[in-house]
Amino acid sequence: MALAVLTLSQLMVVLDVTIVNIALPSAQAELGFPDDGRHWLVTGYALAFGSLLLVGGRLSDFFGRRRMLVIGLIGFALASVLGGFASSLGALLSARVLQGVFGAILAPAALSLLSTIFEDRAGRLRAFAIFGAVSSAGGAVGLFLGGLLTEYLSWRWCMFVNVPIAIVALAGIGLVARQPVRERSPLDLPGAVTSVAGMVALVFGLANAEHGGWGNLWTVLPLALGAGLLAAFVLIERRTSHPLLPLRVVLDRDRGAANLVGLLVNGGLFGVFLFSTYYFTEALGYSPVETGLSFLPVVAGIIATSTLAGSRLLARFGPRSVVATGCAVAGAGLALQTGAGLFSSFAGDLLPGLVLYGLGLGLVFGRLQEAATARAEARDVGVASALINASQEVGGAAGTALISSVAATAAAAILATSPSTAPITASATVESYRAALWVAVALYGLAAIVAVALFRRGIVERDPDAEPLIGH
Length: 472
Known about the structure:
The protein is mainly alpha-helical. The chain has helices at residues 2-18, 24-31, 38-63, 65-84, 89-117, 121-152, 157-160, 162-171, 189-212, 217-239, 247-251, 253-283, 288-293, 296-317, 319-337, 346-373, 381-415, 422-454. It has two domains: 2-187 and 244-454, MFS general substrate transporter like domains (Growth Hormone, Chain: A, Up-down Bundle), CATH 1.20.1250.20; 188-243.
């Protein structure tokens, strides 16, 4: 029952990464904001969420994980209500940023509680399989739910839907055992400032690259500033007595591998979902609901391997083999879809690749989260949980920027051949989709290589100093 509460909490966070994608045209028509305001409703959430995750993780270790889970759930629900009633772009964007802030509190609290609540290895692997399935499938579920709510209710319900989820999770919060806080070291303010500012600059630069290009001043300067601030953050963490991100958390081989693979895999995932949405709606002419339904095979594949096979395979072979295989299978699924065209049938041309993609993802995400927290000391579980979330979020932003740049170049080559007409525009959408898929295939191939090279052989054991949750 505690797992159900934590999984619901995680679902709310990952849903909101994609749920507004299909709703954006309707929101834009009603609120009357320009085209360049649309991407900020996606980026604003990622900006706040990704930049504050490390701080959120340390707050969980400092104030208590269940307490921060409650604060995150309440804050996320209230921010969603503000967004649902928004009457302007500014109000909606503010609500999305607030969702990101409270998501950064909520996500590491949920994952760190999961990491400490299951003490036996079999139960732990099963729990992470379910949690990982929700984490990886949540983006696709968000697209499906966003299409359904937009077509039959209103785009505003893409915000309001978080409220009942939060209420159910809060109603069951008593099922999550309370953990005493053993150590309250001072918050590393210089580290917090440099990490947040560095992540904001980095995500801002990556987001601008999607629209301004990689050579644009507002892309280069934020990226350079972000890199400098993050370098300063590392120097601060090496010298301070109470670091926000102890380097021992990063330097563990399996945790480092999990975070790097998570960055690459999410880079492909975010870009694939975005350009698949464009392809389904603009090239194939699918409605919002049809577009959302098209992602359900991915969800089915994720659930199948994550819950039925992933934990068993991990217990026997360890993350090295399982994660590498999952990345390779996911890449193969995307490669199957590169033959898509203007007249592709869903069942014959797209469905096999979508299912295979989901099957591969189901082998990856739960395994990454388990490996990222398995050896963490009790005092570091929150920040280790935050780090894997941050890696995936930054990877998503970076991957989307890279994929968008390559896809835009492919589309421009088609549009330059003849005057812009509906058939030419549709053909450009198909070419951009194919280009996006090939970039994602390359990212998954690289992720498989990283998994083989960096993960230790065999299974990941928990650190004996990791603190089990006390009480019920």
